[in-house]
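Input sequence (477 aa), recorded before submission:
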Amino acid sequence: MVIVIHQATNTKAALNYNEEKVGQELATLFMSQTYDGINASIFSSDYRQRVLERIEERNHRAKNKCLHISVNPTPEDMERLGEAGLRVEIQNFMDHLGYTHQPFFVYKHKDIDRTHLHIVSTRIDAQNFKKVKDSNEKRKTQQFITKLEEKYDLQKQVSKRKTVNLILTGTGKELKDSIQSVFRLMNASNLKNKQQYLDILKAFNLQLDEGRKIDYIKVNDKTGQTLRHPIPITDFIEPPNLQVLHRPSTSVEERQKMLLKEKLKTFLQAVNKQYRFYDLNTINNVMYKNGFVLFQSSKNGHYNVYAPKEKMVLNVEYELKRYFVRLKDFKLTQNDYGKVIKEIVSQLKAQYTNIAEGLIDTRQSIISPNKDEPKVVLKPLDYDSSEEFRKLKSSYNSKQLRIIKKEMQNYLQWLTERIAAHEFEKRPEENLKKSNVLENFSNHFMRELLMYRNSERKVGKKRYRRLDNQKRKGRKI
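Predicted structure, token format:
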């Protein structure tokens, strides 16, 4: 038995999601409880929505008013409890959480290969209209599950997401089970065509070879080299369903896609700040940890995103082009970039008094308080003089090396303009050529570029401020 309390804010949206499933005959109203004792199943969805809205309207201060819970019993659990026993235990669970007198509605879903239930209620107390205390919900839920397993002698369930790694590496005790999990996931997904199915399989390091009589599945590494002997498709209970029938998305799925796209957009912005210089392996790992799988179309070479949990393709080619313009060609990691720049900067330090003198062409650069943005012209840098850069040459072709140099120059241009604007915002009356400004600029540049403000120093500063505040308040340390 697995019970999950979802972080939902909109009660109406959670209720509508389940009601739409009922309208599509993919769910039924399993049980309900209302404060007036009326059987909610004989009324329309508007009545059920109004029951919860009347309570929530009495509290304007609370923000997260929705209670949305999914109950996931295994087939063995259903067999032992039965529907009557399940109704009793759901009521016991709501009592255990402190929702004894609350109205709630339970929906039994049949939209996937196993039965699961959704409970929708409100966190606003129906009697005093204050928010029901939600502290220790996870602990209370786990306590209830443990007692339930002991009471009915149920088998303990472990989340599959923790035990099965879908990005296969050719190793592991349960390789066939992992491949089977990928097939089940893909077969249940709403995909466009056979080619898209095969493209997403490659993102999971799987390649399907079609033979004359039998098809085989191969597990590859990141470079496409086969890691294990091909496995016949006949070895799997549920083989790949290549007769992909694309169906129109429902209104619920369309809303879900919109929310996922917004989540992905926010995620991409954060990744671009953290990984200005990246390779495909870095991006793949980071995206997978956040519930996204990046795959490449064999038709046009464009990248797209597949969401395994939601079983859908997001069609975000534009967003990927915007945030990862050079995803195909630009593969320099942030660590490699740091090594090259640090070496070049140390060479400049040996030649010039200030780093700024070696970086900025002061004759062509114009920085004036009358201009909104400073004009900073950089001197051409000799990347080939860097031993670290020469090491990289063997890994990239001429086109990639040109892109790498250009990106490094663009980043240095952006960084110097930002620092120059900051310095002259403090001292608008001074000129760039003055030595004290160049010195301040150089110090600022070194702090930013060489990343002296690492995570350890940030933690140290936070701890220092905390101790300092404790001293001021007279607390013993």
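Checked by second reader. The domain at 2-157 is CATH 3.30.930 (BirA Bifunctional Protein; domain 2).
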